């Protein structure tokens, strides 16, 4: 989504604006099943718009410039309709509110920027928000990619052994009428099951993946998935940390923009896609509306932990809510990076050991009868 400024526009920009790290805009996009205006595009959109606005270029001209540099027709049309709405008298925040691609959180942040005259600053902060969010998603993806590749390769090896190697041994055992131990019979039975029902088993695995976009729309399914993920040792705490980092960053930005704390929590709740945290935020919201302080509404909730409750208590006493949430966000972001590396480091040997055990069981189950057969023939 990068763009080139014309020479006449560059004359308006200062050195500080040209010092933006454009290489960030060339990072790999995080897309899933072809999302139209995903978080990576939002990161680029807000960062580029912030640069143009700081350079003294009007909002309409900035949007027109961004839209003109889009390669995909759908994105060009997206910017064209935004310009039409702007010409019709709608504010920028109203334009975002009318489009499903943008969240209520973005709408209110932009509205605050318009009212305060700090739209360029809000654009920059939104760009930073989505940059961090994308980095957290990358950390999660990077932590899981290599172990998943190892696991997938190992499963293929297991299937190959059960489908091709075990039947060869089975023929030898039948020809020599060898009495087979229970473990060998179990492995042969598994091999026969894969031979007879392997295609159906493959379809049962592939079909849910292909139709994921449909059944994941169900709130009930998503809740069960999130609850299951949360129970997985280490992985659950890592995923929780990713979403806590997003939550604290959102609240820090909104409170810095003078949005009331309760309203900030409500908007952050709508933005979060992790149901255990959403439910915890809904519970927190209800307690605050009853007059309970923020730190008391958090206290005792396993999702947030005692550390957050203690720090927020200090923030309430010193009137430093924005500062504390920013510091919490920095801590969570750092923990996400550290845990992503640790997660990958831990999962690799565990998967290798488990797969090694499976391969060992297959080999032992095949060679036990062979040893018995060789002793009889000897």
TrEMBL record:
One of its GO terms (cellular component) is plasma membrane. Residues 45-167, 247-369 form the Type II secretion system protein GspF domain. Pfam families: T2SSF. It is found in: Cell membrane. Keywords: Cell membrane, Membrane, Transmembrane, Transmembrane helix. It is a multi-pass membrane protein. Its main location: membrane. The chain crosses the membrane at residues 140-162, 182-207, 228-245, 346-368. InterPro entries: GspF/PilC, T2SS_GspF_dom, T2SS_GspF_sf. It comes from the Bacteria. Belongs to the GSP F family. This is Type IV pilus assembly protein PilC. It comes from Flagellimonas meridianipacifica.
């Amino acid at each position: 989504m990068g763009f080139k400024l014309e020479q006449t526009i560059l004359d308006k920009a200062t050195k500080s604006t040209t010092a933006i790290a454009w290489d960030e805009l060339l990072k790999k996009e995080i897309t899933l099943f072809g999302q139209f205006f995903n978080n990576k595009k939002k990161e680029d959109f807000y960062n580029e718009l912030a640069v143009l606005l700081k350079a003294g270029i009007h909002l309409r001209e900035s949007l027109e410039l961004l839209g003109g540099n889009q390669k995909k027709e759908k994105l060009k049309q997206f910017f064209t309709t935004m310009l039409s709405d702007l010409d019709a008298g709608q504010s920028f925040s109203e334009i975002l509110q009318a489009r499903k691609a943008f969240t209520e959180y973005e709408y209110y942040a932009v509205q605050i920027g318009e009212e305060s005259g700090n739209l360029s600053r809000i654009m920059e902060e939104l760009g930073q928000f989505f940059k961090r969010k994308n980095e957290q998603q990358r950390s999660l993806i990077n932590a899981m990619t290599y172990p998943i590749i190892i696991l997938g390769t190992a499963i293929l090896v297991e299937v190959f052994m059960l489908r091709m190697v075990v039947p060869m041994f089975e023929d030898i055992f039948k020809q020599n009428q060898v009495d087979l131990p229970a473990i060998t019979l179990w492995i042969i039975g598994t091999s026969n099951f894969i031979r007879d029902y392997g295609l159906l088993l493959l379809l049962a695995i592939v079909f849910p993946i292909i139709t994921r976009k449909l059944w994941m729309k169900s709130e009930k399914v998503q809740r069960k998935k999130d609850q299951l993920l949360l129970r997985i040792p280490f992985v659950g705490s890592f995923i929780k940390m990713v979403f806590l980092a997003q939550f604290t960053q959102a609240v820090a930005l909104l409170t810095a923009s003078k949005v009331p704390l309760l309203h900030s929590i409500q908007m952050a709740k709508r933005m979060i896609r992790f149901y255990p945290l959403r439910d915890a935020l809904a519970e927190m919201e209800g307690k605050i509306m009853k007059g309970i302080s923020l730190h008391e509404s958090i206290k005792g909730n396993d999702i947030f932990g005692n550390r957050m409750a203690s720090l927020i208590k200090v923030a309430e006493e010193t009137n430093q809510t924005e500062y504390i949430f920013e510091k919490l966000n920095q801590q969570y972001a750092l923990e996400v990076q550290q845990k992503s590396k640790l997660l990958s480091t831990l999962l690799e040997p565990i998967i290798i050991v488990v797969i090694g055990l499976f391969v060992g069981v297959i080999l032992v189950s095949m060679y036990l009868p062979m040893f018995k057969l060789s002793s009889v023939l000897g």
